[in-house]
Structure formats: C-alpha cells, structure tokens
Amino acid sequence: MRWLQAGRFRLDLSEPKVMGIVNLTEDSFSGDGLGAQRDRALRQADAFIAAGVDLLDFGAESTRPGAEPVPAERELERLLPVLESLRGAPVPLSVDTMKPEVMREVLRAGADLINDVAGFRLPGAIEAVAASDCALCVMHMKGEPRTMQHSPVYTDVLAEVEDFLEERTAVLQAAGVARERILWDPGFGFGKTLEHNAALFRALPRLAARQPLLVGVSRKTMIGQITGRPVGERLAGSLTAAVLAWVHGAAIVRVHDVAATVDAREILRALGPSSGDATTV
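The line above is the sequence of dihydropteroate synthase; the predicted structure tokens follow.
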C-alpha cells in the first residue's frame, strides 16, 4: 500500500484521488479564474468538498503557455486570505507555486502540499520546504511558461522526463525529504507536443511503478487537439483521460470539474479492473 505524507494528512493512495483546481488567477486558460475574490474561492472550495474532492489545489499565478510571471506579493495577496479561512479543512490544501518565498508563507498559513511546476529548481525552493512535513509534487517542464510551447524537442521524451523526476527526487531526499512525501507529475502540456504527451500518457504505468503520480490533463490543449473541441466543451474528453490515467496507475488526477470526475471514479470503482489487473483497457 502506498501512502503520501501531506502535512496534517497521511493519504492512502491505493484508491484513486481527485484534486480540485481553485484558480485564484485572472487569466486562467480554462476561463475559471477567480482572481482575489476570496468569498467566491471559498464557495468553490466548499462545493468541491461537498462533491467528494480529496485535495484542493490553489494557484495564484497562471502557468498557461505564454503566461507572464506574477510578483510573489500578488500571489500571497490572493492565497493567504483563502488558506487562512480554510485552515483545518477536512482535505489537504495544495498550493501551486514555484516561488520559495510563497512556499514559506503558505506553509505557515496551513498548506499541506506544494505543487511546483519548476520541480523545486529555483534557488531556495528546497530549503523552503525540506524541514516541513508537507507533500511535494515535482513536475517536469521544458523551458518556462512564456516559452515552453515554442517547438519543444526531445531525443526520448519518456527517458528525459523520467530522468529529470528521479534526479529531482534524489536532490530532495539528500536534503532530508522522505520519499513518501513526493509525487511525480510528467507535466502534460508543459513544453510538449501532442505526440510527446501521448507517449508519456501511454507510459504512465512505467512511471507509476517508480513513484506515485499526479496527472493533470483537464481541459488542456491536448484534449482539444484530439477532440477538436474548444476549452469550454472538453468535459467528456477530460473525464475519459482522467479514468484512463487512473487505470494506467495515476494516484491523483487534478481537475476543474470535480463532481463529474467523482462520478467517473465511482463508475471505475464499480465496473473497472480489479486490483492487480493489467493497467490496460
């Protein structure tokens, strides 16, 4: 049985988990950014909890392709009032940030997980989180949000992503971070073409055998490229991808549409492959 140590929680990862996205940005690619509207963010968080979400992920800086950086002060202005209001929530509170100064402050405010698209590479990031008991999601990204989709090239995308995730994990462990605090995210859409994304998705069983995985493909461009649907019409594609990610071994899927994804999980539990079956459909 795999566990994830996440601040106040020790999560059993033997059952598929749903992470709900609460966007505290004004320019989210998915059109659901709430900016600094604390009350709306709290209502969304409460609705997700009522719908059966397992984790909440708060982000105050857009990481969509072409996004410009946001100052740490603005991130904290958006994040801290929400986190402080939700301190003691019945599910882990995750914060999507790459800035060490933001990591330190949100941990003081009650965050249980730090979700870093930069893989804890910025100076001071590891020092900001190592001594805590929060979970850490290490994601692979080629380049940075402003430039990551400018013709990304790999010799072997799976090998490069796998090597990166393992290298960052080794660095974290050397700093005293227990491996049971670490999640891997292959970084779908972060410096990758549809071909790269597809290769990584098919390889999820291999990655999942090495470390618990968080997968985020909800409403993303890859769903639109496959289905031909605009961002507001990608629910069916996103649900299908979420179920396939679980079947392929992902521990957690990060989604915008929590209630629908929870329903999909219940169908998977009732009708899907039993524990130990091959991760294929």
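Note on the example: The chain has one domain: 3-271. The longest strand covers residues 17-23.
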